[in-house]
Amino acid sequence: NVRRHSLETARDRAVATAAGAQADALTTSI
After folding, report:
1. Does the global pTM surpass 0.70?
2. What distance in Å separates the CA atoms of residue 10 and residue 30, rounded to the nearest whole number?
């Protein structure tokens, strides 16, 4: 259970990072 939680946290962090990078790219393009 703890392992699953850590994996979900890592996945959420990766998704947040990707979203942040996409937002930065959009802001830069504008």
Report:
1. no
2. 30
Residue 7, φ and ψ in degrees, nearest 5: -65, -40
Structure tokens at 28: 């830069």
Structure tokens at 8: 């979900």
The rounded distance, in Å, linking the Cα atoms of 23 and 20 is: 5
pLDDT in tens, 12-24: 999 999 999 999 9
Virtual torsion, Cα 16, 17, 18, 24, nearest 10 deg = 110
